[in-house]
Amino acid sequence: MNKTIKIYSVFHLNLSFSSIEERDRPVVIERCYWPLLRLIKDGYPLSVEASGLTLEQIRDIDPKWIDELRALIHSDKTEFIGSGYAQIIGPLVPYIANRKNIELGMQVYQELLGITPHIALVSEMAYSPSLVDLYLEAGFKAILMDWANPYSQNSENWDYNWRYYPQRATSTSGKTIKLIWLDSIPFQRFQRYVHGEIDVDDLLEFIEKTTSSGSMAFPLYGNDAEIFDYRPGRFEAEPELAEESEWGRIGALLDVMSEHERCEFVHPSAVLALTGNDNGDHELKLESANDPIPVKKQPKYNIMRWSATGRDDVWANTACWRVFNRLREDPSASPQQWKTLCRLWGSDYRTHITESRWRDFNLDLADAGAFSKRSGVFRRVEDALRLQMTGLNSVFQVQRSRRNIIIQAPCGTLNLRLLRGLAIEGFWPNGDDQSLVRTLPHGYFSDINWGADFYSGHLVAQIVGRPQVTDLEKVDPSVFYDPDNRFIDLEAHIETLSGPVFKRIRLYAEEPRIEVSYRINWIENTQGSIHIGNITLNPPGFDRSKLFYAVHNGGQDWERHSLAEHNVDHMRAPSFMVSARAGMGMTEGKVIIGDDKRQILVECPREVVAMPALLTCKTVPTWQGKSYFCRLALSTREIDDTARPGPNLPVPGRSEYTYSITALKDHALGR
Q: Most CB contacts within 10 A, which of 91, 157, 353, 424?
């Protein structure tokens, strides 16, 4: 039996690396990129991946490096892996921008390297099934993606040995693309060897223990090139540079492994030859309800890292959405304008970005027009009429008690809690005997771990080192009526532990739609987990066996996930320093939750505020038997190792937040 292990490595080049200053880029090229090419020239088939932007930056600094890479590619000494023009997080970016990013990247690859790559690295290995169609449209034949996190969510259905063979990733449309694995554990072991924390025998022993007999593939490395013989300065705990060259240690390892009877160094494309093995070529869904956007490495690395943490991720993404909407509507928008937007949507501005580069990011966003227009959530209706004036009572019936205010409209009935900051007691669409969203009172669940009130339509801020802040205070709202647009507004100023909150609840007459809007000035420099939208389903209103949610994560199609038998908890903190473990990109600004008969549509316009969504859905007992808790949250802030306080981006309207809840019935996604 052939016992060959096909060893392959992909070195990711990113000259926009978050914590590297622009003045250090020539140093990175000299210390990190040239040694990589020298190893390749010495005969080791190491593969190189870079964005079009990184290649342009290298060309401007050291064009000879580009010439050398091009020569090595055309002499088949290395295989170039593509990605796009900039390193953007695809599941957080709209389909059109993702498509532009890939197209522009392909143009640069052709211009500078004279090639069209056929394998793509999923940026930051932040994957959604919608991206598959984009890669196929661009002509890619295969993608490189992390094994560890998708397997952790599918371990009951996947064979462990599949990690050593090529598979196929399935898109939302049912198409598939060839899949070559990278793996976080091996590449982190490789890094430890190179940094001198373990020796070569430790690494070889690890490879022997994790592989078995028979021909298979093994991803030795698939991560950054900038961390060898250079320290980007992200963490205080980064290993110190030793006198011994780390690229020299890599060369020594490759020498030892080349003498090993089982090791054969190959390019990633050679792995595809193993498709015929029984362990290969399975159609896999890498995503899951609990992890709709898997990424690389440990759970502290998740989609919140680029959507709700950093210095100001939510508003950085909102600013990019405003630029995107203008470019999308401008047929004369130039390729350079689209390149600029792709760069500004880059992942590195959203993690360990340096002070000077953060200031430049602000200036570049301003030049792109991101700060020129306010979305205007709180424009006062000029002809608003007071409650007692003519017209209201012919459309809305308003009843007040000490605890509640109930509004009856042609669209249905809305019950709000006056003692709890206008939290939603219940919302019944016209003709439906079940409330779709509601407050679940203390005692609803019999499990003491769930012995609390679970509200809807409220604010929760869990701030580091301070008591929890909510808007669940007693209010006496003002009521306004717009006779032209036929909606009613309830507005209240609420004093919280952190400062005042202005809140508005709007109900439309004919459409079963609630809008919840806030103006909050004190959130800007707050460190913690801040959920503006909290929407709790009414368990008797939905059939758990048919419950699902659907969302867009970077593509054209809805991504649908069943909640029938799954306990989902995107908000479960992986550690004290990381507040969430998963979430949704919500790139069309919409999430649908429901069953085959009833659904709710939650909308959060991206150009107003690009909040990501998180879901919790768990089986919980009640006094009558087994039931469940299901809540969607919209986040304006989470914490992780990248989270840092201000200065914030000067985005107009940045203190305004809004979302809406619309009752649907028999939506196509529910069938």
A: 91
Name, in order, each residue with C-beta under 8 angstroms of 334's C-beta and a sequence gap of 6 or more. none
Separation CA 11–CA 231 (nearest Å): 16
Give the model confidence (pLDDT) of 495-529 as tens digits: 998 999 999 999 999 999 999 999 998 887 788 99
Strand partners, 8: 219
What's the burial of 142, exposed, middle or buried (CB within 10 Å: 0-12/13-18/19+)? buried
> What pLDDT is stored for residue 236 in this prediction?
55
CA distance 64 to 420: 66
Q: Confirm if 572 and 539 have CB atoms less than 8 A apart.
A: no
CA atoms of 383 and 406, how far apart (whole Å): 24
Question: How much is the average pLDDT of 612-630?
Answer: 94
3-state secondary structure 197-265: CCCHHHHHHHHHHHCCCCCEEEEEEEEECCCCCCCCCCCCCCCCCCCCCHHHHHHHHHHHHHCCCCEEE
pTM over 0.85: yes
Residue 120 parent element (H or E): strand 119-121
Which tokens sit at 22?
Answer: 């622009």
In which region does residue 278 sit, left (phi positive, over 0), alpha (psi from -120 to 50) or beta (all else)? alpha
Residue 22: closest CA among 336, 354, 351 = 354
d(CA 245, CA 268): 26
Q: Tell me how far apart the alpha carbons of residues 622 and 610 are, in angstroms, rounded to a whole number.
A: 36
CA-to-CA separations, 114 to 77, 111, 117, 437, in angstroms, rounded: 15, 6, 10, 56
Alpha helices in 7-51 (DSSP H): 25-28, 34-41
**H or E stretch covering 614:** strand 613-622
User: What is the DSSP secondary structure assignment for residue 584, as one 8-state letter?
Assistant: B
d(CA 58, CA 26): 8
Residue 558: how many other CB atoms lie within 10 Å: 18
| Nearest residue to 20 (alpha-carbon basis) of 189, 233, 273 | 233
Residue 387 pLDDT more than 80?
no
CA atoms within 13 A on the CB side of 335: 8
